[in-house]
Amino acid sequence: MTRQYAFHVDISKCTGCKTCQVACKDKNNLPSGIRWRRVFQYEGGEWIEKDGQMIPSNVFAYFVSSACMHCEKPICEQVCPTKATYKREDGIVLIDQDRCIGCRYCSWACPYGAPQFNPEINAMSKCTFCYDLIEKGESPACVDSCPFRAVDFGPLEEIRAKFGTFSSPAPLPKPDITHPAIVYTPNGSTKSSGDVSGQLKNIEEV
Amino acid sequence: MSIRELALVVFTILTQMTVGSFLVLGVVHFYTVRKKGMEAADRLSDRALLALVPILALAMLVSLLHLGNPLKAPLAVSNVASSWLSREILFTVIFGCCAALFVLLQYRKIGSFQVRNKIAWIAGLAGLALVYCMSRVYMIPTQPAWNSMATPISFYTTTLLLGSLAMGVAFIVNYSIESRKDTGCATDQCDVLFGALRGIAVVSIVLLGVEFVVQPVYLGYLATTSAATQASASHIVQDFSSVFILRLLLVFLGAGVFGAFLYKNTASDGSEAQVKYLGYGAFSLVLVAEVLGRFLFYFSEFRIGV
User: Fold this and answer.
1) Using a CB-CB distance cutoff of 8 angstroms, which residues of chain B are in contact with residue A200?
2) The complex's ipTM?
3) The model scores a pTM over 0.90
4) CB spacing of B306 vs A75 below 8 angstroms
């Protein structure tokens, strides 16, 4: 069995269609307002005036599809007072909703906004890596649904061997706090965490 | 601000006030015993003790409102090994049980002084540990505005400031009851009361000084550390500037101005009525100031990441 499952997202293939987000909501039957997978739209640059015309100078935009990173050092597990949040042997981080008291401390701590309070069950909820599908030998819903085949998954070591180790495109945070189990393939204009040349542009959507 | 965050404000303020009251009561009792004897000291502080347990119980009940599933609250002590929140709850329970036991034994004079004294020490130390754990709950690396020494310093300041002034009020109320019951004792108890209030006035002026040093240093830290802390700083000084200024004004008025007059009037045999109103006034003003400060603390939350 793998020690640590991980997602891979190819930013250069992602068009921001959010099919992954919708497939996740559908498969996991998530109520309105809860998005285990979210797609961030990051944009920057400016237009300059030349010969009376506005010309794009260094304008860029890209999308970052992100869910729970099933971190190697999950801060949510560390702070959870009830041990409801736990990491399985295959690296998947889950919440035992029978133990969760809904104090939301994990949502204060997680820098990826992964744990979200589900008012229907008065407990926290988050991406389960579709472990039920994986155990049947299938893929997570987000992976299978992507029309551009931009989302992939597998053991972290294999994913890193295939796609490298880049894990922190802006607007995501730096990876040093939680060691996320994720690899992104950047496109030509992808900036790194801490970048201030661009902005998150779809804040009302995520 | 939702009922959940309100619950956290009420829980942290009341718990800190209870811990502070317990500690202040211990110190005042210790000095009064040395100066005026055990009986006078017990007469001053026993009734004040009674107020602590219901306030702490109320704080713990209110804290349940913060939870999605309050019935499972006992599970919250499961992760003492790594979660400061578990440790906070554990020490709240230890402090609460020891303090309640002490209040019962002390009020009914059960057991020897030495035994009661030991229980009081355990409760006091558990209280100090509780306030420490409470600050560590907020000191998480993904919350840079909270993750600084300002959190424990301001929590301990609130603890002692509110504890002192709350006990000031308790002593004044106690004195009114005592002097009505037995006019003969009035002079002696009045001395004790004035002595205690004088000490409390000095402590609150010193703590005001601490707050007025910590606040600007903290804002400077927020303004210069990172984009996340700058967001918190602008939240405090721009979006909530009026609350911030009101909080500083009220604590200055309560702990500083009222504190100074309280000191002056208790040092020079001022009138009892004046001293009473100064004590009530100082506590009320500082309580409102600290509640506003705690609101600002929660409003300044800015988690890094997405």
Assistant:
1) 306
2) 0.91
3) yes
4) no
